[in-house]
């Protein structure tokens, strides 16, 4: 949808995903763009109509149903990306070297999932005081870069790759999980994460990823200021 001189909007957009078994098809998508020359105001809405997947992890492109894929390297920057109602958004594995995806604002309802694969970088350019409601899986070789001050609520963030993170508030029902092969950009060593400030609020959780169940696994979390 292309528009000009949009001043007031009081309606809503919905895009229903496909159906199928055992998982539904990819989510519906809506593309909005300001049609005024030299204005690059773009919005992407991904909506799966609350059709749940049996597995929230992304294994590979050829067998992964129910995901909406970014296929073109001509769209690396977005003003707003919505991933809602159990939609899954992923970057095509051919977009690497590395491929950088930037968005000023990610919008979700705590059910959407963003997948970041090998040699892919996602940069979240939120204002520091904006709450974050999108689940994220950063797979080995992928990179997630967050604002200097970041807070999350009601979502799960799994890090098997690299994360650019300095100060985080892990709020109510947010689960931040660190993997053995992941690291922070400041530490740059597998299994080592370095943060300036870590604050865990009521019902917030910081732990290891689900596969680290045995006592032989070792992960180091270095925090300058730790607050509860």
Instruction: Please report which band the strand proportion falls in: under 5%, 5-15%, 15-25%, 25-35%, 35-45% or over 45%.
Output: 35-45%
Low-confidence stretches at least 5 residues in length (pLDDT < 50)?
none
**Widest sheet, order of strands:** 1-2-3-5-7-9-11-14-17
SSE pattern? EEEEEEEEEEEEEEEEEEEE
Query: Structural class, please?
Result: mainly beta
Count of discrete domains: 2
The count of strands amounts to 20
Shape: globular
Mean of pLDDT: 85
Helical proportion? under 10%
C-alpha Rg (nearest Å): 18 Å
Count of helical regions: 0
Major sheet description: 9 strands, mixed
End-to-end distance = 46 Å
Overview of this protein structure:
Helix content is 0%, strand content 43%. By secondary structure, it is mostly beta strands. The chain folds into two domains: 1-107 and 118-136, no CATH class; 146-228, no CATH class. A nine-stranded mixed beta sheet has the order 1-2-3-5-7-9-11-14-17, with no helix packed on it. The chain has a seven-stranded parallel beta sheet with strand order 4-6-8-10-13-16-19, with no helix packed on it. The protein has a four-stranded parallel beta sheet with strand order 12-15-18-20, with no helix packed on it. It is globular, with a radius of gyration of 18 Å.
């Amino acid at each position: 949808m292309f528009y000009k001189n949009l001043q007031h909007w009081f309606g809503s957009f919905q895009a229903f995903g496909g159906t199928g078994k055992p998982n539904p098809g990819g989510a519906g998508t809506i593309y909005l763009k300001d049609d005024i020359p030299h204005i690059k105001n773009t919005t992407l809405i991904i909506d799966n109509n609350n059709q749940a997947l049996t597995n929230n992890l992304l294994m590979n492109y050829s067998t992964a149903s129910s995901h909406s894929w970014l296929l073109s390297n001509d769209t690396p920057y977005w003003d707003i990306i919505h991933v809602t109602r159990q939609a899954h958004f992923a970057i095509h594995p051919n977009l690497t070297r590395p491929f950088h995806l930037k968005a000023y604002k990610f919008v979700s309802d705590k059910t959407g999932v963003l997948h970041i694969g090998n040699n892919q970088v996602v940069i979240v350019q939120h204002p520091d005081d904006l709450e974050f409601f999108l689940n994220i899986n950063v797979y080995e070789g992928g990179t997630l870069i967050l604002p200097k001050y970041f807070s999350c609520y009601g979502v799960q963030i799994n890090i098997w790759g690299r994360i650019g993170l300095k100060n985080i508030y892990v709020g109510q029902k947010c689960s931040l999980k660190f993997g053995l092969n992941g690291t922070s950009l400041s530490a740059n060593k597998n299994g080592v994460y370095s943060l300036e400030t870590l604050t865990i609020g009521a019902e917030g959780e910081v732990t290891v990823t689900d596969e680290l169940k045995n006592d032989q696994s070792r992960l180091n979390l270095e925090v300058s200021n730790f607050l509860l």
